[in-house]
TrEMBL record:
Signal peptide: 1-36
Ribonucleoprotein keyword on record: no
UniProt keyword annotations, A-Z: Signal
Keyword Ubl conjugation: no
InterPro entries xrefs: WD40/YVTN_repeat-like_dom_sf (IPR015943), WD40_repeat_dom_sf (IPR036322)
Protein name in UniProt: NlpC/P60 domain-containing protein
């Protein structure tokens, strides 16, 4: 059957689950919704940490150890490097480089284990913060194999809010160590099941199903009402589905901690594809009109889709902005093909912006703003 039908239902269901979970936290969010995503001192997702950090960066909050400014929810934090990290983590207080390194608040991690929203600190907890103490917020890996990464920092009175790059070797030699906030989570997922859809049994229509994080198990409904259970994935994964090998629809997961898709083939075998990084959102669709569907990610920090084609090549498409929710399906009929297209739904305006084969934008107002 046309892969567009699978794509439409699957991605819409996934986007709904993502939207409801609060995983998307971006600069496009209204102050109220971003503030409501976490409570002061409570659990916070990596996406929200970076959203909060980018708010100060976008406002270019000046460095001033004697001044305070608000976060997205109106709480005041000190305008220096440790106050900035305290703000990004939504802490109760503006800590110092010294007091951020306490085990009741953070855990030390290897620099090679850094993930978005973690921090690099050079001031071990000993009760004082000497001149030159500094902390930066880890943004993402540029090239993990060489140790190159990107960071965000309230730097100093000359540079204020900055985004820069560094290398693990350079920072390690300078005495920096990794810190992970104890209340940070990979994604603010729903506590229950997640919906998926696809043509599981090769019949004339698509079917529904759920993926249960607590057991890592898909429960798929067939045309006759029967259930097929498939063990696939673990808590913290994100479910996906698509026609990976040209047969009926199959299931799969994307693992944010490794940036890896685990796709189940018709014969039950596993295909692993490294694609994306923590903070991305998985999508799938038949991007190149071939016999099978492909995988991809949408990167909220850049508003860019990274789509994988049958030959393994990458197609990048800039579409949307931080805070949007990605969707994909065959919006315009593919000129007689099954080509999938991408799009976004913008919560702040309740508007779909759908990309057609010719690159044009179809806007549809559907749903309620939030």
């Amino acid at each position: 059957m046309p892969s567009s039908r699978i794509a439409k239902l699957t991605r819409t269901a996934l986007a709904t689950a993502i939207a409801a979970s609060g995983i998307i936290a971006g600069t496009a969010f209204t102050t109220g919704s971003a503030h409501a995503a976490s409570s002061v001192g409570g659990t916070i997702s990596r996406d929200e940490v970076l959203t909060r950090a980018n708010d100060w960066y976008n406002r270019q909050v000046p460095y001033d150890q004697q001044a305070w400014t608000t976060d997205l929810g109106g709480k005041n934090y000190r305008q220096d490097c440790s106050g900035f990290v305290s703000m990004a983590w939504h802490l109760n207080n503006s800590e110092t480089t010294d007091t951020l390194d306490v085990r009741s608040l953070t855990t030390r991690i290897a620099l090679t284990d850094l993930q978005p929203g973690d921090a690099l600190d050079n001031d071990p907890h000993d009760g004082n913060s000497p001149y030159g103490s500094h902390i930066v917020l880890f943004d993402h890996w540029i090239d993990k194999s060489s140790g190159q990464f990107a960071f965000i920092s309230e730097a100093n009175s000359n540079d204020d809010m900055t985004k820069g790059t560094g290398t693990i070797g350079g920072y390690g030699n300078a005495g920096y160590f990794g810190l992970r906030y104890n209340n940070i989570i990979d994604a603010a997922w729903l506590a229950g099941d997640y919906p998926v859809a696809g043509n599981w049994d090769g019949g004339p229509a698509d079917n529904v199903g759920i993926w249960r994080p607590s057991t890592g198990q898909f429960h798929l409904r067939n045309d006759d009402g029967g259930i097929t259970k498939v063990d696939w994935g673990q808590a913290g994964d994100i479910p996906v589905s698509g026609n990976w090998d040209g047969g009926p629809a199959n299931v799969g997961i994307w693992r944010p901690s490794t940036g890896e898709f685990h796709l189940r083939m018709d014969d039950g075998s596993l295909t692993k594809i490294s694609w994306g990084q923590a903070g991305d959102i998985p999508v799938s669709g038949n991007w190149d009109g071939g016999p099978a569907e492909n995988i991809g990610i949408w990167r909220p920090s850049t508003g860019e889709f990274h789509l994988r084609n049958d030959d393994g090549s990458l197609t990048k498409i800039s579409w949307g902005q931080n805070g949007d929710i990605p969707v994909s399906a065959n919006w315009d009929g593919g000129n007689g093909t099954n080509n999938g297209n991408i799009g976004i739904w913008r919560p702040s305006t309740a508007q779909f912006q759908l990309r057609n084969d010719d690159g044009s934008n179809t806007r549809l107002d559907w749903g309620q703003p939030r």
